[in-house]
Design goal:
- The complex is a heterodimer of chains A (about 260) and B (about 300).
- By secondary structure, chain A is an alpha/beta fold.
- Chain A is built from ten helices and ten strands.
- Chain A has a single domain, classed as P-loop containing nucleotide triphosphate hydrolases (Rossmann fold).
- Helices cover about 35% and strands about 25% of the residues of chain A.
- In chain A, the strands form two sheets. In chain A, strands 6-7-8-3-9-10 form a six-stranded mixed β-sheet, with helices on both faces. Chain A has a four-stranded antiparallel β-sheet with strand order 2-1-4-5, with helices on one face.
- In chain A, helix 3 packs parallel to helix 6 and helix 4 packs across helix 6.
- Chain B folds into two domains: about 45 residues; about 250 residues, MetI-like (MetI-like fold, Orthogonal Bundle), CATH 1.10.3720.10.
- In chain B, about 70% of the residues lie in helices and about 0% in strands.
- Chain B has eleven helices and no strands.
- The termini of chain B are far apart.
- Classes of the chains: A alpha/beta (about 260), B mainly alpha (about 300).
- At the A-B interface, helix 2, helix 3 and helix 6 of A face helix 7 and helix 8 of B.
Chain lengths: ~260, ~300
Amino acid sequence: MVTQISEGLKAEVKDLNFYYTHHQALKNIHLQIAEKKITALIGPSGCGKTTYLRCFNRMHDLYPGNRYEGEIILFPDQLNIISPKIDPIEVRMRISMVFQKPNPFPKTVFENVAYGLRVRGESRRSLVEDKVEKALKQAALWEEVKDRVQDLAFNLSGGQQQRLCIARALATDPEILLFDEPTSALDPTATSKIEELIMQLKKEVTIIIVTHNMQQAARVSDYTAFMYLGEIIEFDKTDKVFTHPSKKLTEDYITGRFG
Amino acid sequence: MSHAKTPNVVEMRKRIALNKTRDYIFWVIGLLSTLIGFVLLFTMIIDLFIDGFPRLSGQFLLSYPSRFPEKAGILSAWVGTTLVMIVTAATAVPLGIGAGIYLEEYRRKNWLTHLIEINMNNLAGVPSIIYGLLALGVFVYFLKFGESILTGGLTLGLLILPMVVIATRESIRAIPNSIREASYALGATKWQTIKDHILPYSSGGILTGMIIGLSRAIGETAPIITVGALTFIAFLPSSPITPEFPFLSFKWLLDPFTVMPIQMFNWISRPQKGFHVNAAAAGVILLFMTLLMNAFAIYMRYKFRKRIKW
């Protein structure tokens, strides 16, 4: 049985199954997501961690043939976000995502961050400006770009682009922020900046991060779930998972014996 | 201790020389093929220029056709061509972009949309005279638009529609999926994603496709003859701007017309030498109009390419 956590919950996953047409990618997943904590998903390539993450903002709905079963309950209003009755757009407005490769729009720095607000019909200029500035500050990018918010985002470096994507995701005050291997396309310096930033952000938002890098999971997260072949093998406090894993498979993976 | 076998250097060098000779032969063939095409085209253009040059004047541009070659001009032809192109662009561009977006972003994959897709790709290869016959039946006889600018423009619009669709689809497909996902992840709807991202980022390619289509349409003769454009027309269509309210008139849409290639075709089939010179001069103007459009397309493509590098 998967460990129960005692802190405040932001989400609870109950008996989640996910299918890509006929292929079952996730099997009977149970997991609790603690509020304003960082939950890391680790596991070998193809174990389903990205698939799992993308359930949280219903990205799978963009492509035909995908099917969810089970529940992901979002607190405090106990909304089952994978229910077909719930509009995926509503879910995405509450839960933001940062992708593996920086994917800014070919627009200005300002318009990139403001886009989420534009989608929500926000047209008050001063409010948009304030929110953009706040988001850029939260993403630790403001100092670097404050004099060139009207420059094209493509002119920023890779690490800056990724922080811009984080600012874009933060500008709409999401309840949960999803990170899908956010540093796998970045150099070590940019990576450590992003990691620092992620640890800062948990004061304000619940974070779920998928990572290939076990050191990263150990450094930044409070809870860690180890996934293998579409199942959660072990879930516990990060310290516990990395120092006293209860399953042989987890131990083999974190000590580098496979994966 | 045995040495490795010495390679037969003499034989090897012979082989290299032979390979290099073949290389050289292909180089010559390639160069000749390129030159033949280029020189022929260039000669034709120069010839056209030399033949037509004496008639290139303001008077030529501002006169109606006439029985006397030295008095004849292309006023009704170039005005007709311009107006027909406006109708063509106004139909083919919105329809083509709409269809392209639908096929790339909205379409569900089933046998019906698959059939539409196969047809769309084949339509680009249908001979233009077939479009002319279709237009004669649909626009002239069935919808009773007559032998008008509207009919001509719609006919050419249909002709270039597949090109606009294909260009739209290709430039939409060049946008990485990560951009769509970024937009959807922020809570955007499909239409918001299309309007704010897909369309702006693909506009360079769409524009290029549109201009290439119009460049083809401007030189089309067969479908325009089929729908009954006149060859001798000594008046202009009614003005689109009127002195009284509402100041805009669309009566010109239903007026008879002629276009540049038809005027040229008419002149070239006359026995008098003077008309042949006129045909050449009109050819120069037509070529100039086409080059102008292409130059615009190249400029736009350059401008948009520079801005977005995925």
